[in-house]
Amino acid sequence: MQIFRDWRELPEAARGATIGLGNFDGVHLGHASVIRVAHTARPDRPAAVLTFEPHPREFFRPQDPPFRLTLSAERALALEALGVSIIYELPFDQAFSHLTAEQFVNEVLHKGLGAAHLACGADFAFGRRRGGTTAYLSAQAEALGIGLTLVPPVSDAQGPISSTRIRRLLQDGYPERAAALLGRPHSIRGEVVHGDARGRTIGFPTANIQLGQHLEPARGVYAITARLPDGQVVKGVANIGQRPTVGGTESRVEAHLFDFAGDLYGGEVSVALHSFIRAEKKFDSFGALKEQILRDAAAARALLDGLAAQTA
Description:
Structural class: alpha/beta
Largest sheet: 6 strands, parallel
Number of strands: 14
Radius of gyration: 22 Å
CATH topology of the largest domain: Rossmann fold
Distance between the termini: 30 Å
Order of helices and strands: EEHEHHEHHEHEEEHHEHEEEEEH
Strand content: 25-35%
Low-confidence stretches: none
Mean pLDDT: 93
CATH architecture of the largest domain: 3-Layer(aba) Sandwich
Shape: elongated
CATH superfamily of the largest domain: HUPs
Oligomer: single chain
Number of domains: 2
């Protein structure tokens, strides 16, 4: 897969693709439908996605709490798994935000990318102050000889699948329900950093990952799997939160990996949330916390073994 961060002066092999348009935060089942429809329309052309970094909401509302489901690297992996071979990840900055709808279609999609076919949701908006609608895009694409498919939302019994719904489910402590809408477990990816080493003193060393721009799920303990830098996947248990028993003030992921003793500092690890075990709690003593950690680890092992048996 190739990633391009400028639409100008692309190599010819990177032009003329069939392109799904959107932010693709989370890369959920609705996004997968857009990609599938785009490629089905022109299977002779490379499957591509046009998206933005940072997310436009981060650019326009930097004061908002972090809300991202997937950052750039994890999003790229999820898109690649759906068969995307080209990602146009365009920098969303001041200059880009001032492009008019007409400039976006003509300069970016047509002249820059040489789009063969486009696909997007019916609510896709673009250009300065979101002035470009799908009706405008349809008329302009037709005039330029570009195909366009408007993709209806993918829905379940609760309504259309959206990144907003998935965020709410994670914040309410339902990672399994979020996974059903994503098509895979929700993951938090980041560099393993040094913590306070308290877990190591009681036989529970942890890989510590800062949440950064990721959405903070419900605070508490989860059964997890971790994808390590070498591609190995290891079962474990993780706490997400501020660690009130030891006076923590910043939320982060602390993942204990079962039967693993390697050095992960400085490496990128992706922690997938499979099941919520309990809410974050302040314990009266470090000893009481240790006893609870033992119970949490046993619960996580049982849950993950059960999930493995179901898929075997």
